[in-house]
Design goal:
The structure is a single chain. The chain is 44% helix and 25% strand. It contains 5 helices and 5 strands; from the N terminus they run βββαβαβααα. A hairpin with a 3-residue loop joins strand 1 and strand 2 (13-19). Helix 3 packs across helix 5.
């Protein structure tokens, strides 16, 4: 079955998450250097069919795009150019890093491990994707 890939794009690192085949839950997959993300997704798509990308979009509290949105916009152009037939959904990523830290604490992750920004990015990508999956289930 096809997978949905969640992406938490950052200037240095990109957190990647993937749905299970039934699209019920999201799992943190990997953290990739930003310069290598398109290459990583290309390799991933050679082994798994991707139905959709869900990309976290940075918004301010007033619902305007944040400064980081310009970086995400540039990434989205590359993503759409490389994968023109795979739809992209933008998901508000406000507070995902805070929620990722909370999830790691609740999951018993030690303080030193929670300082690993790569781990936080993966969990953030999973939260972005899970938000999409949960809302998608409600519309069925």
């Amino acid at each position: 079955m096809d997978r949905i890939v969640g992406i938490d794009y950052g200037r240095k690192r990109v957190g990647v998450a993937v749905s299970d085949p039934l699209r019920i839950f999201a799992s943190a997959l990997e953290t990739v250097p930003s310069a290598k993300i398109i290459e990583y997704l290309q390799r991933y798509s050679e082994n798994e069919r991707i139905e959709r990308f869900v990309v976290g979009y940075p918004m301010n509290l007033d619902n305007a795009p944040s400064e980081a949105a310009a970086d995400v916009d540039a990434f989205l152009k590359q993503l759409k150019k490389r994968f023109p037939d795979i739809p992209v959904t933008l998901e508000d990523e406000r507070f995902t890093s805070v929620l990722a830290h909370r999830a790691m604490i609740d999951g018993g992750v030690k303080k030193m491990a929670r300082r690993d920004k790569a781990a936080v990015d993966k969990v953030s990508a999973a939260l972005i994707l899970q938000t999409f999956l949960d809302r998608d289930k409600q519309t069925i």
